[in-house]
Amino acid sequence: MITEQTLPSLSPTMEEGTLVAWHVKKGDHVEEGQVIAEVQTDKAVVEWEALEGGYVAELIIEAGTQAKVNAVAAIFTSKEDEDIGDAVEQAQAKNRELAGGGDSDDDAADNKDESASQDSGKSTPDQDAPPMPSRKPSAPAPSPSSAPLGKGKRVSPVAARMAAASGIDLAQINGTGADGRIVKVDIQAAIDGGYARVGSGGGAAPAKPKLKLTRKDGQSEKAGLSQMRQVIGKRLLQSKTEIPHFYVTECIDASALVDLRSQLTAFAGVKVTFNDLVTRACALALRQHPTVNSTFHKDHIVKHDSADISIAVAIPDGLITPIIFAAHTLSVSEIGAKVRELSGKAKEGSLQPKEFEGGTFTISNLGMFGIEAFNAIINPPQSAILAVGGIKDEPVIRDGAVVPGKTMRFTLSCDHRVVDGADAAAFLRDLRQLLERPAALLLS
Fold this sequence. Notes:
It is a single chain. With 444 residues, the chain is an alpha+beta fold. The protein has helices at 85-98, 107-120, 157-166, 184-192, 227-242, 255-265, 274-288, 332-348, 421-436; strands at residues 2-6, 16-22, 29-30, 35-40, 45-49, 54-59, 65-68, 72-77, 147-149, 153-155, 245-253, 294-297, 300-303, 309-311, 313-315, 318-320, 323-324, 361-365, 384-398, 401-415. The chain folds into three domains: 2-118, CATH 2.40.50.100; 144-211, Irregular (Dihydrolipoamide Transferase); 228-442, Chloramphenicol Acetyltransferase (2-Layer Sandwich), CATH 3.30.559. The strands form six sheets. A six-stranded mixed beta sheet has the order 11-20-19-18-14-17.
């Protein structure tokens, strides 16, 4: 029996992905649940597990190639040496159809389309056309998919066009395709300043960009949109267009918060950040305000009991929001350890879907950059996101007198379909009280 192994959707927003590395090769026997490949989604590099076992009869999608979800990546058979000729052709046709028949993200499919488009441009001789002069047979010209470049380098048509549009010197690029062929992913990595990938089946290794794009005076620099940037742009545009945002800002006296952190960090081995304290305070406040801890789903609203807080983490190509599940059950130090663990995995690109899918509320903190205040865009289907500013030295009124103090500003962005102004104000009031009297954050 022949089965197609199609590229799965490994994140809620994934429409295409890059097959980073195969963990199997032709002829291997695979067990159900075995990791067969690593796939770069719009959020992270995720392991792909086989849903059923069998023999690897053919790897259709080459490592390092980008393809649409549901594209046929491999063909498995129930027994060795089974005839798969028709199955391979059908798989390649399906992949070309998914790619839209134009410039496929799968360079192998693109090469076939490119050759086909060149053939279609040639007229078919008929009985009225003058006879074509006979030619002496000559050696076949190299195909567009493997045109030689420089010192023996070959390049796919899509990669060549991308390089030309971006002003990239192909002699500076190391190809990761078959026989060192330069493919689309190599050019995209150079444009994005991302990772250089090793060859088929060899996994992916972080490396400094092979190419440094320089900009001369008076010239602009063009960079393509990575998969993650495309998804970020689409989701944020959808959020701002479809969600009726409103914003509520609060300024707190952060003097006691600063003192508490200083005391906690004075103990050996205890590392606490202001963000850890804010996350703990939000978790407690969310339990008192389930309306703010809600998600919107077209025709209904879900009010969550658990405070599953997404933390916005900046990574080289955008941002991702790993989740502190049940944050209300964790101590400040436990929250800090979990945030550091997830942030590290996010920057390495090794987060698993279960670590960033879901969440009931988001915190975005730019205080470490000295930003005083900003408005954040809601991460649907959540109904609110808290923008956290930095701590400023400012005068405050204490016991009726103006004294030197430290202030901190918070802006809550709310979905007005779920949260009303009074709900947002009550949440920020309780958050302020927790942060201005922060000893309560240490209670279980």
